[in-house]
Amino acid sequence: PCSSNPCKNGGTCSVEGQNFKCSCKKPFTGNTCETGPCSSNPCKNGGTCSVDGQNFKCSCKKPFTGNMCETGPCSSSPCQNNGKCAVEGQSFKCECPKPYKGKNCEISPCASNPCQNNGKCKVDNENFKCECKAPYNGSLCQNGPCSSNPCQNSGVCEVVGLSFQCKCKEPFKGKNCEIGPCSSNPCQNRGTCKVVGINFQCDCKPPYEGKQCEKGKEKML
């Protein structure tokens, strides 16, 4: 029974009745000493397994490393946004789901920060959608209390809470900086009022004159 050398991996064969029995060298076991540290194919990603003492040793193919060749370019999960990672040569390649792109699928429709005024950008199918904070609205959260330019006479508009506040330049005042030296219509007799510095000046129609066009000249014969 031992003439066919049935005992593998250096096992010793002995005749036992009509059959044979193998005495296996450590770390091998089994009827024919066929089971060893490499039997479970522990080396991943095409690595080659060899018996090393009582254990196994893997010779890994590049770019894989680790005790069982388990570590590779995709091990760190480099593909973002549910991208699929594949080993390509010594590196990796990401297969990105729409609408993502870039080496790591890191570029999305929100990458350019399209939402204004602290609006929150969310990917919506193959585009983006802005979730706006009050009091802003619009597709890009671009519309707010100051959008209509409510501050007159070069006043500066600032958003305060859900409304606006005007910082008026002298000599203007009022909620919309609408009140100025000409607001009281100081120019009489259809004179035209204009703001000069922080005061007013009247352009009088003949025959009127004076600071407020209050004086009339007699017609010359």
Notes on the structure:
InterPro entries: EGF, EGF-like_Ca-bd_dom, Notch_Cell-Fate_Det. This is Neurogenic locus Notch protein. The protein is mainly β. The strands form seven sheets. A two-stranded antiparallel sheet has the order 1-2. The radius of gyration is 44 Å and the shape is rod-shaped.
Helix content: under 10%
Q: Would you tell me the structural class of the helices and strands? A: mainly beta
The largest beta-sheet arranges its strands as 1-2
Tally the beta strands: 14
Please write the string of helix (H) and strand (E) elements. EEEEEEEEEEEEEE
CATH architecture field of the domain at 181-220: Ribbon
Low-confidence regions: none
What's the number of helices? Answer: 0
Q: What is the CATH topology descriptor of the domain at 181-220?
A: Laminin
Query: What does the main sheet amount to?
Result: 2 strands, antiparallel
Overall mean confidence score, pLDDT:
94
What shape does the CA trace take? rod-shaped
**Radius of gyration of CA atoms, rounded to a whole number:** 44 Å
Distance between the termini: 154 Å
CATH class of the domain at 181-220: Mainly Beta
Full CATH superfamily name of the domain at 181-220: Laminin
